[in-house]
Amino acid sequence: MPVRSRDAKEFVRLWHRHHPPPAGQIFSLGAADEPNILRAVAVVGRPVARHLDDGTTLEVTRTASDGTRNANSLLYGAAWRAAKALGYRRLITYTQAGESGASLRGAGWRVLAHRPPRPGWHTPSRPPTDRGTSQIARTLWQAP
Description:
This protein has 144 residues and is α+β, with helices and mostly antiparallel strands. The chain is built from three helices and six strands, in the order H-E-E-E-H-E-H-E-E.
């Protein structure tokens, strides 16, 4: 089901383990149960890495769930179908070291690459903002 941007961001703020809501998005999706209670969201936007932002690729920048079984896998599959329906040819996402990727495998996604930890950066004119991604290895995934 479609979810408004502000509602998806609030859900991420409440339920995501280690990241704040993303700044922007192209669309967001939700999974709800029978009484229409939102149980999980996926936020899809332009790729964070500039070299992947080619106009045909989108990135799942956040998913968050209240723990409902299979909700994230359902959303990864739905996000890929929605992206294709909008004319995109590629959908990617990242997991951090220590995350199993079970939801992605359950949705048929495959590993493209393993990225080493980034050292972070610092310049006097622009001090770093800790977003929880420095010094953490990541895995790049792609939708089937």
